[in-house]
Each structure stands twice: as structure tokens, then as C-alpha cells.
Amino acid sequence: MENKNVIKTDITIVGSGVAGLFAALCLPEGREILVITKEQLKECDSFLAQGGVCVLKSIEDFDCYFEDTMKAGHYENNPESVKVMIESSPDVISTLVQLGVQFDTDTAGGFDYTREGAHRQNRILHHKDETGKEITATLLSIAQQRKNITFVTQTTMIDIIEKDNVCFGIVCEDEFGEMGTIVCDDVILATGGLGGLFNNSTNFPHITGDAFALALKHKIELQDMHYIQIHPTTLYSKKSGRRFLISESVRGEGAVLLNENGERFTDELQPRDIVTNAICDEMEKFNTDHVYITLPGMTSEEAQKRFPNIFEACMEEGYDITKDKVPVTPGQHYMMGGVKTDINGKTSMQHLYAVGETACNGVHGKNRLASNSLLESLVFAKRAADVIAETHDIKNKDIPYIDLTKYPEKPIREKEFKQLIMNEIKRKDKAFYDKWCNNEN
Fold first, then answer.
1. Fewer CB atoms near the end CB (10 Å): N or C, the chain?
2. Contact 149, 24 (CB under 8 A)
């Protein structure tokens, strides 16, 4: 390990999405923070989140919100994590507003709360249909002004540096294939999910579950790796690449699903997995690879104002969602499982934390409730940052030697990582693997 290949910092954050950014902003400004990201800063799934972010509006809604989250997760959620997330939501939203995040308001100037599938109350804040973009862009703008935060783009984590189950940093590779090590006190994994391993996904293709593969290699505890959410409504296309999501919020505003005969076949406001199964049944019944969605309760002008991004994407494909039947099909969307953590983002390895979609603290259970993802990322990113800020233990400075020549070339490494993850999914749930993954290898 040559000195020129070693970077030393206090904290390394792997990933520039909402979880990684909020963690960076919640850490003390006296700590030196390095944020690495696999592509460009804005090429993260947080920028794609359309629907919104949930919030506890009043204490009277706590029991209802808690039950809605638990029911959507098939009661496999960690109740403590759910309680922490809901109780923390008002403070997190208040912080976002103070930082400059703009949420849509009603005619009286108050928040315009909306409702999505499996919610019994209107408790979701939104910024048109680009809530994730609004939050993430605001956080990124502030983080880029902080002198203690440095961003490095087009850099991929390829290994974790550890000894005796203690994390000392990471090994990374830049866009030119040059490898190096980052040595630090703490590492926060915020690498997102694994949609890039699927042919049909709403995720960016470079988000390939690298943290999960490395966790398997280093025996870091994982949880529920087979709990992968298939979103019911992605815009149907025969083109390759990322699938455009037609948000659940559209169905929350009255959109209906139709089969090949133009018949409505399900309650569109059920949890995502139930709606997905209903769509799959219709596709099998009619031997098609899509169904249709339409929004008859809005005019084109109203839809364009409420859902500008979605309306434009449909129009580009030749459909006015308020008048036409827009073809949609299920696609991989979100990871409920992941690197196992406690309610403070701690993993089974010392000085290694995980937040956002990478982490599994049990909030989502078997199926995520709509618009809980941004909130969950923000709440537990802050908790991880707070624990790191308060931890002052001195770890052994005997950093293990890293031979950079031992790592295989990128194509070989990517194939190995994918195989590790797919094998783990298959081990946990062969039926899910056969239905959604078996044609991916």
C-alpha cells in the first residue's frame, strides 16, 4: 500500500443520496468528511423519488400511522424502529423547512397533505411530483458549501478495510481504474439498493448493491435480502434502461388501473405488493406484459400542474394520462432488506454504519409503505451521525495491509458481486428469485 494511494479523513460516507447528505450535514463541522459517489452527484435514486415524505401531523394520528406502516409491512416490521421514525418526523420536516426545502401548500398557505396507497389519512408532504429532487438538491447545495465536506465523484467502493471485525476504511477505484484506500475513524454506507441488477427497474443502472456483496464477503450481518419491492406501475417500454416510475401518488389522486378489456380490476390504494400481484394476475389472464393506468378525474391542465414530471414523460411517449390509457408494468423498485442495523445505524462491524436503502433497521418489514423511504433515510441518517459525533473511543491504529494488486478487474468483480447477491436472494426465497430474478443472470 503506497502512500500516494492512501487518503486519510475522519469519516467516509459512501453515497450522495438523501441519507448520505443528511448524515454529512448532521455531523459536527469540526470533523473532516469525505463523500464518494459511484457516478455524478445527482445520479442517485433520491433524486427520482416522486411521491413525497410522510410526517406525523398530530399526536392523534400516531396510532393510525403506526398501524398503516405495520400493516403494509405484513407486521414483520421492527415496532421500535417504526415508533422512532414516526416520532422523529416532525423535527426532521421542521429541519428540512429551515434548510430551505419547499413543500407544496394549499390555498390557505398550509401544507398540502396528500394520501397514497395503504394510508388511511392524508399525511404526505410533496413538492409537485419531484419531492426527492427538491429535498436532495437542497441538501446537496448546502453540503457543497461546507468546508469540512469533500465530494469525490465517479469513485466506487470495492472493498472494506477491516481487522477483527473493526472497520478502518474502504478500498476504492476511480473512473480510470486507479485503486486506492481511504482510512478513517468511521464509515457510513449509503449506497442505495440493487436495482441495477434487474433488467426492469426504476433505479439507476449503476446502483448494484455493492455494499451487500461486501457485507457477504466480510460476514457483516444482513437482514431480509429477499424483501425487494416490485412497484406496480412503471411506464411500459421495450427500450432498455431505467424504467420511469408512475408514482403511487397518481393513484392517490384518483388514477385507476384497467386490463386489456378496459375493465377496472383492483382497489388501486392497496399496498404495493397486493396491487402488483393483481396486475400480474391480469397480465397472465390476457397473456400481455402490461396493463393500463388513466387519471380521469383531472383535466390535462390540472395533471400538468400536480404531476409535471409524470405528465411530461407520458406525453413524450404519446399519452395524455387524463385521456388515454397509459401502459404500465411492474418493475423492481426498492430494497426493504439490507445491511442489518440497530436504530442508530450501527452494523455488526464496529465503526461501520449503514443508512437509507442500504440499511435494514426493520422499519419497512416485508413491504414498504408509500413515502416512508425519504423519511426513514433522514431520521436514521441523523441518528447515526449523532452517535458518531458522541463516540470518542480510540481504536487500534494497526491498520491492516492492503494489497491493491489482488483485486480483479471491474467486469470480473461486478459478476462476482452480482452472483453473491443473487445467490443470497435465492437462498432466502427461491419463489421470489424464480419469479423476478431468474432471468436476470
1. C
2. yes
Q: Where are the beta strands (DSSP E) in 15-131?
A: 33-36, 53-54, 124-125
Question: Would you state the cell numbers that stand for residue 425, as one nine-digit string?
Answer: 436472494
pLDDT tens digits for 285-342? 999 999 999 999 999 999 999 999 999 999 999 999 999 999 999 999 999 999 999 9
For 129-191, give the DSSP string: T-HHHHHHHHHHHHHTT-TTEEEE-SEEEEEEEEETTEEEEEEEEETTS-EEEEE-SEEEE--
**C-alpha 38: how far from chain center:** 15
3-state secondary structure of 91: helix
Q: Tell me if residue 272 is catalytic.
A: yes
Which of 318-323's residues contact partners 24+ apart within 8 Å by CB, and which partners? 321/246, 321/250, 321/255, 321/293, 321/294, 321/295, 322/294, 322/295, 322/296, 322/298, 323/294
Which entry of 272, 306, 368, 383 is annotated as an active-site residue? Answer: 272
Phi, psi of 14, deg, nearest 5: -100, 100
pLDDT digits (tens, 9 = 90+) for 147-168: 999 999 999 999 999 999 999 9
- What is the CB neighbour count within 10 angstroms for residue 102? 12
Structure-block grid coordinates of residue 45: 435514486
In the three-class reduction of DSSP (H, G, I as helix; E, B as strand; rest coil), residue 264 is classed as strand
**Cα dihedral: 390, 394, 396, 402 (round 10):** 40
Backbone angles phi, psi at 88, to 5 degrees: -85, -15
- Judge contact between 266 and 278, C-beta under 8 A: yes
